[in-house]
């Protein structure tokens, strides 16, 4: 009975949520403890079946099942660090250097000059959505959170609104609009033309982020959360920059470089990977080779951090004074975030090894529900159970790809869009993105569960409603 993936999921949820909120455990301890219990309860047969479903050989699957619990958790922990460790460290340096140099304050003043204070959150919402098309969600959040802190200090309010606007725009673009990995896998698995997915994802994404904006405004009025003191961004430091004379701040072009450098590199690399073949273009085309090399997300963030430190160096009259301290405090705060996020990744990986995705697929295989909401709810179940939006999209598309072109009364693009929207439900402690948002914005776990989690859930549901209406009015596009 206890070996059923659904029972194991519930036990894991109780340990994490109860431990953090009820037992006041540090999130790292609660997540590692939950991962240990989940791994201990998972039978070897489930691990083998999971590994085989991922395309591993029978030998590799048996080897994984025979690996000790500690080694499996450590491997998953290390895998998550490998994915996000350098990104978070470099993002912390970028944020700290932009705040210390006044670059964030210069950008904020420029935004206010264009939009006015009243429309600043809309600028953050639309900006994060467009940035989220070529750039990963976490990268967009890393780059924009220092701007949100500087803007909140200048406005003296609406910090939560700005944070939610960033997450709303970047999260929806990340799941709906290629060339991010989830949508790219969808269009390949379900034979959806990339141009059609881009247009459809953009339109649905626009509707969802509008709904997300209204929710963010409402929750910000009902339960405003102030900008808090943090090691990487002391309030006194931000306030001092907010009161500086404009002539003491770096120019807008220099201020934007820590954001534009990684953005342009990642976008250029994504364009090359999508539409070109560097080998076919010829090794003599050194520009394409370099762009692909530096456009890898880790390299791009390193270049962004170098640009941010150079901005700080120039702003301090070419003095190293303060740079060592800036890097030290950034890495100290970033290290804590890396540990918690990696623990969340390990917990999610142990849940995946229970076979929860396969269990959900079995439960829904004979469900005679309309295909569009079925696609949505299968994806939502997998996302809530194991934490990864991309894994949820891959799982759901694998289940439904065979139905995508057989006897449908509507274009199968709608199935793909429904899967993308379903991957937004429900982010909680087994999602590494939850911890990134929670810790980098200095929200408590309760605050994140009351604001960030409902925000993505509401946008996903609005997306489903939009898709079903569009499929009814324009079934074959």
Major sheet: none
Number of strands: 0
Taken from the alpha-carbon principal axes, the silhouette is globular
- What's the pLDDT, averaged over the residues? 81
Distance between the termini: 48 Å
| Tally of separate helices | 23
Helix and strand sequence: HHHHHHHHHHHHHHHHHHHHHHH
Estimate the strand proportion.
Answer: under 5%
- Helix coverage percent: over 70%
Low-confidence parts: none
Q: Give the radius of gyration.
A: 22 Å
- Which structural class do you get from the secondary structure elements? mainly alpha
Give the total of domains.
1
Give the topology.
Elements: H1 5-22, H2 27-41, H3 44-53, H4 58-66, H5 69-101, H6 103-115, H7 120-131, H8 137-155, H9 159-176, H10 181-189, H11 194-222, H12 235-242, H13 252-275, H14 278-281, H15 286-294, H16 297-315, H17 323-353, H18 356-364, H19 371-386, H20 389-400, H21 413-422, H22 432-440, H23 445-473
Structure description:
The protein is mostly helical and 477 residues long. The chain has one domain (5-473). Helices cover 77% and strands 0% of the residues. The protein contains 23 helices and no strands. It has helices at 5-22, 27-41, 44-53, 58-66, 69-101, 103-115, 120-131, 137-155, 159-176, 181-189, 194-222, 235-242, 252-275, 278-281, 286-294, 297-315, 323-353, 356-364, 371-386, 389-400, 413-422, 432-440, 445-473. Helix 3 (44-53) runs antiparallel to helix 4 and helix 9 (159-176) packs across helix 23. The protein is globular and about 65 Å long. The model has no long low-confidence stretch (mean pLDDT 81). Pfam families: GntP_permease. One of its GO terms (molecular function) is gluconate transmembrane transporter activity. It comes from Cyclobacterium amurskyense.
């Amino acid at each position: 009975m206890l070996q059923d993936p659904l029972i194991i999921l519930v036990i894991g949820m109780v340990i994490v949520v109860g431990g953090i909120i009820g037992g006041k455990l540090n999130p790292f301890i609660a997540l590692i403890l939950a991962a240990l219990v989940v791994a201990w309860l998972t039978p070897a047969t489930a691990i083998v079946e999971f590994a085989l479903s991922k395309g591993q050989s029978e030998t590799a699957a048996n080897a994984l099942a025979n690996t000790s619990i500690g080694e499996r958790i450590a491997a998953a922990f290390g895998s998550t660090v490998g994915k996000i460790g350098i990104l978070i460290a470099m993002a912390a340096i970028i944020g700290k250097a932009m705040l210390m140099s006044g670059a964030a304050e210069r950008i904020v003043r420029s935004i206010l000059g264009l939009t006015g204070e009243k429309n600043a959150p809309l600028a953050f919402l639309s900006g994060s959505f467009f940035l989220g098309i070529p750039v990963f969600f976490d990268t967009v959040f890393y780059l924009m959170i220092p701007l949100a802190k500087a803007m909140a200090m200048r406005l003296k309010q609406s910090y939560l609104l700005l944070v939610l606007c960033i997450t709303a725009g970047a999260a929806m673009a990340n799941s709906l609009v290629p060339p991010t990995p989830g949508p790219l896998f969808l269009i390949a698995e379900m034979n959806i033309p990339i141009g059609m997915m881009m247009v459809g994802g953009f339109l649905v994404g626009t509707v969802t982020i509008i709904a997300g904006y209204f929710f963010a405004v409402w929750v910000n009025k009902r339960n405003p959360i102030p900008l808090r003191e943090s090691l990487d961004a002391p309030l006194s430091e931000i306030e001092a920059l907010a009161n500086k004379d404009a002539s003491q701040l770096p120019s807008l072009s220099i201020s934007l470089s820590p954001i534009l450098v990684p953005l342009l590199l990642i976008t250029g690399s994504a364009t090359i990977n999508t539409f070109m073949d560097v080998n076919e273009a010829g090794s003599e085309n050194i520009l394409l080779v370099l762009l692909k090399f530096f456009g890898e997300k880790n390299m791009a963030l390193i270049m962004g951090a170098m640009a941010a430190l150079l901005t700080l160096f120039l702003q301090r009259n070419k003095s190293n004074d303060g740079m060592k301290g800036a890097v030290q405090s950034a890495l100290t705060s970033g290290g804590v975030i890396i540990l918690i996020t990696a623990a969340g990744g390990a917990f999610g990986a142990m849940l995946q090894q229970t076979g929860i995705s396969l269990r959900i697929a079995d439960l829904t295989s004979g469900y005679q529900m309309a295909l569009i909401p079925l696609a949505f709810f299968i994806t939502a179940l997998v996302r809530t159970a194991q934490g990864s939006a991309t894994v949820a999209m891959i799982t759901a598309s694998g289940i439904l790809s065979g139905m995508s072109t057989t006897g449908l009364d509507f274009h199968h693009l709608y199935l793909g869009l429904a899967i993308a929207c379903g991957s937004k439900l429900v982010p909680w402690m087994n999602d590494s993105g939850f911890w990134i948002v929670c810790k980098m914005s200095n929200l408590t776990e309760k605050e994140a569960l009351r604001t960030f989690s409902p925000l993505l859930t509401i946008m996903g549901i609005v997306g489903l409603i939009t898709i079903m209406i569009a499929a009814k009015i324009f079934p074959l596009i």
